[in-house]
Amino acid sequence: MWTIPNIITSFRIGLIPVFVFVYFLDWRWAHEIGAFIFWLAAVTDWFDGYLARKLKQTTPFGAFLDPVADKLIVAAALLMITHTYASVAITVPAVVLMLREIYVSALREWMGTKGQRDKVKVSVIGKWKTTVQMLALIGLLSGLQSFMGVPLYWVTLGHILLYVSAALSLWSMITYSISAWPSIRDGAK
């Protein structure tokens, strides 16, 4: 159970309270350091999956824990940016992203009970959504528009990418729903 990838995934879960605590410190660089911790968690998400495949250490526990870790840290980040920016322009796509995560998780769980989880396995669109979403959240969490006088426009880019990730999120949700539709229809009878 305690393979290297599972330890990395557990580390990612352990980063969540650190990330939230640091982000809300009354300190000049708190948001930037919080964004860095979130970035570190995002990198470990890629790294644990890579190691699980490379070292042949995939486990049922890891298959369960990895998406839970992802959803927990993303949910925390979405709550934090809605709090920080307190704007409809951030809140609406954040809510779309959260609703999609809950819906797709429930759909995958239900399809698993039907022995058809493969019909709603992670797709390329879902991977794009995750990548764009992580970049958006890093930009919005950091609050950086410039660094040492060099324009970065991270917040502006973060806003744009948040909407792109929300659109990809809806697209992937619809795609998963279409794949699952025959089972949903048959299950409703």
What does this structure look like?
A two-stranded antiparallel sheet has the order 1-2. The model has no long low-confidence stretch (mean pLDDT 89). The protein contains six helices and two strands. It is 79% helix and 2% strand. The chain is mainly alpha-helical and 189 residues long. The chain starts with a helix and ends with a helix. The protein has one domain: Four Helix Bundle (Hemerythrin (Met), subunit A) (Up-down Bundle).
Task: Record the SSE blueprint.
Blueprint: H1 4-23, H2 30-54, H3 60-85, H4 88-113, H5 124-142, E1 146-147, E2 150-151, H6 154-187
Antiparallel strand pairs: 1-2
Task: Describe what is shown at a glance.
The protein is mainly alpha-helical and 189 residues long. The chain contains 6 helices and 2 strands.
The secondary-structure class comes to mainly alpha
Strand order of the largest sheet: 1-2
Let me know the average pLDDT: 89
> How many structural domains does the protein architecture include?
1
Order of helices and strands: HHHHHEEH
CATH topology call: Four Helix Bundle (Hemerythrin (Met), subunit A)
Question: What is the overall number of helices?
Answer: 6
Report helical residue fraction: over 70%
CATH hierarchy class name:
Mainly Alpha
CATH architecture: Up-down Bundle
Q: Give the low-confidence spans.
A: none
CATH superfamily: CDP-alcohol phosphotransferase transmembrane (TM) domain
Strand-residue proportion? under 5%
Main pleated sheet: 2 strands, antiparallel
